[in-house]
Amino acid sequence: MDFEQVIKNRKSTRQFTDQKVAVEVIKKVLQEAQLAPSWVNSQPYHVHLATGDSLERVRAQQEQLDNSGAKGAPDLPMMSRKDWPAQAQVNMAEWTKGLGAAGKEMGPASAKLYNAQEVLYLTLPKGYSLWSLYDLGSFGNGIVLAATNQGLASMTAYQFIKYPKMLRKELNIADDEEIIIGIGLGYPDDNALVNTIKSRRMNLDDILTIHR
Ligand SMILES: Cc1cc2nc3c(=O)[nH]c(=O)nc-3n(C[C@H](O)[C@H](O)[C@H](O)COP(=O)(O)O)c2cc1C
């Protein structure tokens, strides 16, 4: 796929079909994402792929926890929206307001992990340098772009990692690994209202200062 098409076609998908992704395709996506730069080539991340029965066990537990109102307790600290910088608060409020009817489908879809057929959990070893968070984000973006190039839909979400205790138990993830983010992969359900959510970007001039 043309690079510009890849970067423009990638978007968050919140409802996947039941179609699975071949493990060879996922490995190709990850190998391409591994080409991301990292601090002194440290490549600090690890990937856990949940698929098949393992993922179904996680999905069942997630739905139960979500429906019981269990509070998310991710390994990365959370910050209340009101403590974010002002512009970020404006952007988040605008995005939330723009969800419309599709927003009502987000809760039920997310409780079922968006029906993603493959979920990648990206982890860092406990005690990681803060620079590794930059590297992991870069790796994650490589994953979603490489996935788009393979004709896959993707979803980067806190929703996947909000219950790390459950994930550690179900996927046998060691205590010395911090579960940073989850990325769902699969094929998009083109009939789902929740997949019509669009996100705007700020004007470039509002985030760019050119120093001549
Ligand atoms: C670290 C991270 C966590 C996210 N967590 C969620 C989530 O839990 N639920 C959700 O609906 N979207 C989540 N998103 C998706 C963002 O809402 C989305 O990327 C943003 O609105 C831009 O839309 P786009 O990805 O379609 O371009 C997350 C994105 C990132 C990068």
UniProtKB/TrEMBL annotation:
Keywords: Oxidoreductase. The keyword Cell inner membrane does not apply. The keyword Oxidoreductase applies. One of its GO terms (molecular function) is oxidoreductase activity. It comes from the Bacteria. InterPro entries: Nitroreductase, Nitroreductase-like. Residues 7-187 form the Nitroreductase domain. Pfam families: Nitroreductase. Belongs to the nitroreductase family. PANTHER family: NAD(P)H NITROREDUCTASE YDGI-RELATED, NADH DEHYDROGENASE_NAD(P)H NITROREDUCTASE XCC3605-RELATED. This is Nitroreductase. It comes from Limosilactobacillus rudii.
